[in-house]
Amino acid sequence: xxxxxxxxxxxxxxxxxxxxxxxxxxxxxxxxxxxxxxxxxxxxxxxxxxxxxxxxxxxxxxxxxxxxxxxxxxxxxxxxxxxxxxxxxxxxxxxxxxxxxxxxxxxxxxxxxxxxxxxxxxxxxxxxxxxxxxx
Length: 135
What we know:
By secondary structure, the protein is of the alpha+beta class. The protein has helices spanning 9-31, 34-64; strands spanning 94-96, 106-113, 125-129. The protein is built from two helices and three strands, in the order H-H-E-E-E.
């Protein structure tokens, strides 16, 4: 007599049911990641704005110390001015707070979406440095 090998129908059905249960519990976590993606995009832009502000401020200190630099610092009087420090500016769907900053001072600024329905509960914060460029 020949011995057959393989899975029985019951075993196959059990595996399919287990996979279905796993998919039903895991799938909703991965289907709608748009909120997390929007929040991560804001955090990335806030990081870029903070870095650009710090570099511009450091460059202005170097210029005031009469050191030779290859880049001319840009005047920053408000948080909103920081957007001009990034190549291409910030995306048109985002906006920066408009807090005023005095020369040499720092201010906490926020960046968010222009459509306030898309904003997370806490907006990302970046540090902006005030810079006055004298001709």
